[in-house]
Design a protein that fits this description.
There is one protein chain. This protein is an alpha+beta fold and 358 residues long. Helices cover 35% and strands 22% of the residues. The protein has three domains: 2-111, Uridine Diphospho-n-acetylenolpyruvylglucosamine Reductase, domain 3 (2-Layer Sandwich); 115-227, Alpha-Beta Plaits, CATH 3.30.70; 236-327, Alpha-Beta Plaits. The strands form three sheets. It has a seven-stranded antiparallel beta sheet, sandwiched between helices. The chain has a four-stranded antiparallel beta sheet with strand order 1-5-3-4, covered by helices on one side. A two-stranded antiparallel ribbon has the order 2-6. It is globular and about 60 Å long.
């Protein structure tokens, strides 16, 4: 249940190769057709199923990388357990090509489960979002594979601006949750799923829900969640933020962001959605003025630091977030990063200027 691929292999090709073998490579994101394995590993990409399968780091068993001096580190482990010394592959996962260039990797595959249940739910408050997440985790266990939450700002904007999409609900709600489970018994899984949602509806945790009855319904629900790809051209220029924090801090964080930005700008749009089950929020913010972007970033990242959150949940630091890294890492951590960089890349030839300055 492993797959070995070159770093330039697109994610979709890997997914299709796993599927042809009757297996699953669970990492998935909207750019599946163009993003490549080396980049996914270098940024420790997340995607929509982190709540069940973890980040890319959890899916890489071994890899091969080239150091700045040309040394090839071939650590192509294929075993789940291997504590023979340092886990060297971790030097190259999530370090954005600054410590070495990944050339190939051994990936972990999973059984492809025959049963899938998908629902789009509406909620009145973020407290209900948390309550529903806990209920679904308790009643569905490890079969819960996705828990995506969309604030009304995002959901309503997508519905309004993507011509082919329609809301399945007659009125609007403050929050929407896209929930998906995967299992082994279609009849039993569907019954458990419907019972879990029914209990949440009866208790008032959710206001309304639509359960997918076909693959077309599933694709429609996910098209709303993935609608950001279609609306971003109309949002330009915008600030794209990928942050994380504890789930309980999320409503206060979003409220504080909105208040801070409203105090600085007369007209501003803030579209919020995220993988709430794994602490990740995405914010697309625009005033329509290019020169406002730096001020927006300064404001949001400062507040992220106040909440002891991460300025990059899954997209990486690169050069754009390097000046804000101190909000999420203390001085000792930053110095250790510099020491690693100086040791493995003393001449600064690997992705220079990214993540950390030496």
């Amino acid at each position: 249940m492993t797959l070995t691929a070159l770093a330039g292999t697109p994610l979709q090709v890997i997914q299709e190769a796993a599927e042809a073998a009757g297996l699953l490579f669970p990492l998935d994101l909207g750019a599946r057709g163009t993003c490549q394995l080396g980049g996914l590993i270098a940024t420790n990409a997340g995607g929509t199923q982190v709540i069940r399968f973890g980040m890319t780091r959890n899916l890489v068993l071994g890899l091969e990388a080239v150091l700045a001096d040309g040394t090839v580190i071939s650590s192509m482990n294929r075993m789940l357990k291997n504590n023979a010394g340092y886990d060297l592959k971790q030097l190259f996962i999530g370090t954005e090509g600054t410590l070495g260039v990944v050339t190939r990797a051994v990936l972990r595959l999973f059984p492809r489960l025959p049963s899938k249940c998908t629902a789009l739910c509406t909620l009145a408050s973020f407290a209900d979002v948390v309550a529903l997440l806990r209920q679904m985790q308790t009643k569905m266990g490890d079969s819960l594979s996705a828990y995506e939450v969309m604030w009304a700002s995002y959901f309503d904007y997508v519905i309004e601006h993507v011509e082919k999409l329609r809301s399945p609900f007659e009125r609007t709600f403050p929050l929407y949750a896209l929930i998906e489970t995967e299992g082994t018994d279609s009849a039993d899984d569907t019954e458990r799923f419907e019972n879990a949602l029914g209990s949440a509806l009866e208790s008032g945790v959710i206001q309304d829900a639509v359960i997918a009855q076909s693959e077309k319904d599933v694709q429609t629900f996910w098209a709303i969640r993935d609608g950001i790809a279609e609306i971003t051209p109309g949002l330009m220029p915008y600030a794209s933020l990928d942050v994380s924090m504890t789930v309980t801090d999320m409503p206060g964080f979003v409220e504080q962001i909105d208040k801070a930005l409203a105090a600085q700008f007369d007209l501003i749009t803030n579209l919020v959605f995220g993988h709430v089950g794994d602490n990740n929020l995405h914010l697309f913010i625009t005033t329509g003025v290019e020169s406002d972007i730096d001020q927006i970033l300064d404001t949001v990242y400062k507040i992220t630091g106040d909440y002891q959150g991460s300025v990059s949940a899954e997209h990486g630091i690169g050069t754009l977030k390097r000046a804000y890294l101190h909000y999420s890492r203390n001085d000792e951590e930053l110095e250790l990063m510099r020491r690693l960089k100086r040791t493995l890349d003393p001449n600064g030839i690997l992705n220079g200027g990214r993540v950390i300055q030496i």
